[in-house]
Structure formats: structure tokens, C-alpha cells
Model the fold of this input.
Amino acid sequence: MEATEGGGVGERLTFIVAFTAPELVTELDYYLYLAQELESAEQELENTPAAQLIEFALNPEEHDDKVGMVLERFKHEHSFLFNKILEDLGLKEDLSGEQLKRFQDDIFAAYGMSCIRLEILEVYRGNKYNDTCITEINTLLTVLTPLLTR
Done:
């Protein structure tokens, strides 16, 4: 950001889970049939050229719960595509809720994705340039697991 003071709103991070289906993914086309925004967090960044940390915490259990919720919705809203996924993975079409939970990781690995979207909510005019410049974005994924006690 430029050195001009401003009351910028900041940025919003959104966690998204999405699914596609077999035969619909090519090098030229990756169509997501269901993308659901699940978590959002707004954060105001400082007016500085120094690196700033934006934290967005989601533990593995929360991720699995959110994937399961979106997968269940995908199963009901796009049953034809969901059944194509099961067929492609060699699973039977009438999976119970418990069976779906058991195969959730396999389904997600083959046809799901999760991502974090960074959205700039507001910018203000600088005293040197009239545009927004992001010089670099680095991501660091830290998976937190509980310590095993013996």
C-alpha cells in the first residue's frame, strides 16, 4: 500500500470446498459443480511494506467435517454426477451415511478440492501510484495434530 493514510476495510479470507465429476475434467476445462464457501475472516493489514502474517485456522477435523457436509450436499443436489464418481472409484451407488464418511477421503482426493480465497475489500489512492500492488504472497500450511501420549 502507498504511504497515504486511509481507513481501508482490509482483506477477507474465505475457505471453500468444491467438487467436480468424472469425464468433466480435461486439460482445458475444470468445472466445479458445487463450490461452497464455509468460513470467512476479515483482517485489516497495516500500511507497511514489511511482511504481514494473516492467520486462518482450520484443524484437520474441522476440514473433514466441512468436506463431509459439502459432499452430502453434492450427493443430493447432483446425484447423477455423484453416482459417476462412485462408479469411477468402484464403489456401490447406495452408500449409507456411515459408508460415505468412510470413503470421504478417497472421493475428496479424486474429485474434491479446498482452497482459501484472498479478497481485497477496499483500497485507497496512494500518493505515488493509483493502483494496488501486491508484490508477493507466500502460503504456509501448518497441520496441527495432537501429541500422542504413551
